[in-house]
């Protein structure tokens, strides 16, 4: 009996392997990631409709806005190109599934990957750099916002095309500000000022219970990354991994420790709400008026203005001190065109779609529909965009913040293969500091030490 | 009662018929064997294989490392903490879940008014999926706008970081889990009480047993098989719990709610780590833990169970 079932199992396993093998060989051949891109004739020579499978991580209002852009593109290219958007879950899920698809040699034609997946996508050697298409077409990138281009430019070449870009902002509850005798038009600029304001904004009831906290943000490593960028210092070595592959993180610097300690002290003093890592919990607290000042991405502003019963104001992201030379780095995601396993026509069709998305009209629709920045600065001249900014002046803050930031290695943000794990380790360090288990300096040093083997093993595996 | 005795078979025919029956038996077994091989046998073999290999950038096995993942785990303080958290989670969910349900069922036996309504109410958690129940609990537990802290503040008590304070996070997740399991446990035990022979209960009553005495000497012992079943199934369930941890705490704060299953997920899929080698080694350890728990339960507990 056992002999039989073993044979059976073996046969089935073989059948399963054969099936996956079949699916992998079905995708056509194409140019490898050798730095050249197919020209427009690739599409002209293609027979029938070229399908572009597009993996993305957009939900809710953002997904609606994306779908309408896809529909507009498909309508304009009827009979030639069809883009099929496929939702794959969170950004982390997209990366996990993308890795599996590389193993099975069944990558999508086009994939949306978050900022911190940039180094991995380059090292995966599965994509055709956007620069290759730009060079082939002599396409002008001048209108793409320089700070956003800065993030996705590696070794002087544009690796992927930015699509949805965001920055962190300081969100204010203006009613709470007035109640506390503070002027929302003069928001705090430094962490010290923010701490002072948080103390004034915290209110307690007769029994000593906190009714409103002065400050509250999700335990999200991105906020620490941005505070470090604002201070003009580096998050990882080799100029934030821009000159060479970064070999070690620097977030355990005096600046990093200052940011984390400041946060923990506010929580311990009872002036900040600790709602944990889940962003939705921190967002809910701010929308409910339980928190007067809050850190979040520009991407949630639209939802806030609609949900909150008070007037939401936005202010530039805080700095560690007045001396800070930096500015916030770009967040969000970009679009990567896959090369190996995809026909020249398919690659070209992906590029056509990527180009379409970055044009002013589409970026204006995207900006007004979601709250992400327009990556194309001409989008701001679009009458619809202007009208919308007049209606929601809170969105102007982010645009000013972006334009005020000088492109430097610090504000370009850190490129690191294991960046998602680095972010997680910083979150653990924040939790340890808040609980009082360690000082911020100790917690961050331990986090950096804990991460080192992962960096080394990543770097050795990509050579 | 013996069945009809088969008549003598012609010589040599027995073997042929035997062979035919065997073929038939295999034919019937084939579908389930195929399912087992494909969905249990193959993944198990693959997990063991992966646990002895290092991974490339995409998580594909790239080099043989022998038992290194296992020895690394044994030496890792983080993994020890994960094991302790897992055991605490099992103890704090199985005990209260099964015996809480038993208490409720015994209360229902005392024929208070509205028993039918109460029985449905107690079984209700069974109708909630883990995901939706977890989302509701995350609203209860929210430190700033949560219901629980709202209630506490009525009594002038402090805001508690139910999910964000390391002292309470595991307890909070366990409490939510116990609530989720309660419905199923109440259903099973209610059915068990219903199957207790009425004559036994009558006899006990004639002997003067009632209330606590009846419960202790008749109901609970006769519920033995059901209680045993629930303990075994709840233990395995607890060891495999994922949804509530993922939605409520993501294993935090600072790893306070990271159980073995959650750790497997983190290593394999979260934060782009793709460390399938370590994750698979942990999965094998998890299998050992499940087998050990089941072994102990069958070896020790089942001896005390009285099958009517």
Low-pLDDT segments, ≥5 res of chain B:
none
CATH third-tier fold name of the largest domain in chain A: D-Maltodextrin-Binding Protein, domain 2
At CATH level 3, the topology of the domain at 80-139 and 166-270 and 279-304 in chain B is MetI-like fold
| Distance between the amino and carboxyl termini of chain A | 49 Å
Biggest sheet layout of chain A: 6 strands, mixed
The major beta sheet of chain B can be summarized as:
2 strands, antiparallel
Gyration radius from CA atoms of chain A, angstroms: 24 Å
Describe it.
The complex is a heterodimer of chains A (463) and B (308). Chain A has 463 residues and is α/β, with parallel strands linked by helices. Helices cover 50% and strands 14% of the residues of chain A. Chain A has two domains: 33-166 and 331-381, Periplasmic binding protein-like II (D-Maltodextrin-Binding Protein, domain 2, 3-Layer(aba) Sandwich), CATH 3.40.190; 168-327 and 410-462, 3-Layer(aba) Sandwich (D-Maltodextrin-Binding Protein, domain 2), CATH 3.40.190.10. Chain A has helices at 2-26, 41-45, 60-76, 91-103, 118-123, 130-137, 146-152, 174-179, 191-201, 221-230, 237-241, 254-268, 279-287, 301-307, 344-358, 360-370, 383-391, 396-404, 409-412, 419-435, 440-462; strands spanning 50-56, 81-87, 110-114, 127-128, 153-154, 157-158, 161-166, 168-173, 203-204, 210-216, 272-273, 291-297, 312-315, 331-338. In chain A, α10 (221-230) crosses α12 (254-268). Chain A is globular. In chain B, β1 and β2 (61-64) form a beta hairpin. In chain B, α3 (77-109) runs antiparallel to α4, α3 (77-109) packs parallel to α7 (169-194) and α10 (224-240) runs antiparallel to α13. The radius of gyration of chain B is 25 Å and the shape is flat. The relative contact order of chain B is 0.12. The model of chain B has no long low-confidence stretch (mean pLDDT 87). Chains A and B meet through α1, α4, β10, α13 and α20 of A and α1 of B.
